[in-house]
Specification:
The protein is an alpha+beta fold and 166 residues long. It has one domain. It is built from 4 helices and 9 strands; from the N terminus they run H-E-H-E-H-E-E-H-E-E-E-E-E.
């Protein structure tokens, strides 16, 4: 693979919420139509440190929630469309740290920060402690296969399986 193609492939990608929902739905409903998933299709994911830093730099991020999905891609060689595993990352925070807690809500619930949200700063002393931010859903991941380390102690194969398919 050329260096330019590898660099192009590693550009972080913000995903619109409806598309992220579709990809997650593809994962949740994967076996609903009788299709059988092969666990070897999604052994692991590689995420660059710079991408995690970008995600963690979103305002009020205390946690990162990761969702598993499957996105449509076209095989360049065959032209056939298939679903490829992906990992969607979103910023998250405890409810009490970013929004008003209503009666009956657990203030320690970790909530996703997605899309345009008005968040509060409980420590603020100004008249209007709320600010609006546009939180992104990110797909930074590159799955294994094909980006595998078949020499890793964690790269487990089935009995008799050839590692060369990665």
């Amino acid at each position: 693979m050329s260096e330019q193609k590898l660099n192009d492939e590693w550009v972080p990608m913000s995903v619109p919420v409806p598309l992220a929902q579709e990809w997650i739905g593809n994962w949740i409903n994967a076996n609903a139509d009788g299709e059988r998933l092969d666990p070897r299709e999604m052994r692991a994911f590689v995420v660059r440190k710079a991408d995690f830093v970008e995600l963690l730099n979103q305002v009020d991020t205390e946690y990162v929630r990761l969702y598993v999905g499957r996105k449509k891609e076209t095989n360049e060689a065959t032209g056939l469309e298939h679903l490829r595993p992906c990992l969607l990352l979103v910023s998250a925070a405890t409810r009490k740290d970013v929004m008003t807690v209503n009666e009956g809500q657990d203030p320690d619930t970790i909530v996703d920060l997605i899309g345009e949200m008005t968040v509060t700063n409980p420590a603020s002393t100004i008249d209007d402690p709320a600010e609006t931010y546009d939180y992104q859903v990110f797909d930074f991941t590159r799955p294994c296969p094909p980006r595998c380390d078949d020499e890793s102690d964690l790269f487990i194969t089935r009995d008799g399986e050839d590692k060369s398919f990665c």
